[in-house]
UniProtKB/TrEMBL annotation:
Keywords associated with the record: Membrane, Transmembrane, Transmembrane helix
Tree of life domain: Eukaryota
Pfam families: Rer1
Subcellular location: Membrane
Membrane-traversing stretches: 25-47, 59-77, 140-158
GO cellular component term of the entry, any: endoplasmic reticulum
Name of the protein: Protein RER1
InterPro entries noted in UniProt: Rer1
Length: 195
């Protein structure tokens, strides 16, 4: 009996089943932010212990931290560029629609959500850890130069990001859900029409 051209083979079915099971496990970890980040930090510490013990793989470590910096910047950046959003509002107002600038609530939506940030950072740490088992990736470099260059790159990038945040007046974090704090309810209802 021949299989049709559209049905996946046994290997593909196995891969799909494993992928679904892994995705189910990931989906269950979404509300568990502290344990997820604890796991990621533990992996990161294990990676550092290995690099320190081997006294090598500085290029891999440098590349990992550059990747972390890119993820962090994407995490701090809004999904919609405020410049293009302001331009779109100006166009809407010029077409005769009511202005919505003053009181409209615009929540901060990240370019890179927290869960994807964690997932990609953990995956990058695992890949870097695996690369330390192959001597071909242990390129001899003078590591203090890489550290100085990374610090310089970090300062310049964060300075630019903070200027962007100040210019467009957004804060990439919230301190929790805002609660309505109304007047205390005395329990009596007064109908103003009959007084």
């Amino acid at each position: 009996m021949e299989s049709s051209g559209n049905s996946p083979g046994k290997f593909e079915q196995f891969r799909i089943r494993i992928s679904r099971q892994f995705q189910t496990i990931l989906d269950k970890t979404v509300p568990l932010a502290v344990p997820r980040w604890s796991f990621a930090f533990t992996l990161y510490l294990i990676y550092w212990v290995r690099v320190w013990y081997l006294n090598g793989f500085h290029i891999i470590t440098y590349a990992l931290h550059i990747y972390f910096l890119n993820l962090f910047i994407a995490f701090l950046t809004p999904k919609v560029d405020p410049m293009s959003y302001d331009d779109a509002l100006d166009e809407d107002e010029s077409e005769g629609q009511l202005p919505t600038r003053g009181g409209e609530f615009k929540p901060f939506i990240r370019r890179l959500p927290e869960f994807k940030f964690w997932c990609w950072a953990t995956r990058a740490t695992c890949i870097s850890f695996t690369m330390t088992f192959f001597e071909g990736f242990n390129v001899p470099v003078f590591w203090p130069i890489l550290v100085m260059y990374f610090i310089m790159l970090f300062v310049i990038t964060m300075k630019r990001q903070i200027r962007h945040m100040m210019k467009h007046k957004y804060v990439p974090w919230t301190s929790g859900k805002k609660k309505f704090m109304g007047k205390e309810d005395s329990g009596t209802v007064i109908d103003q029409r009959y007084q």
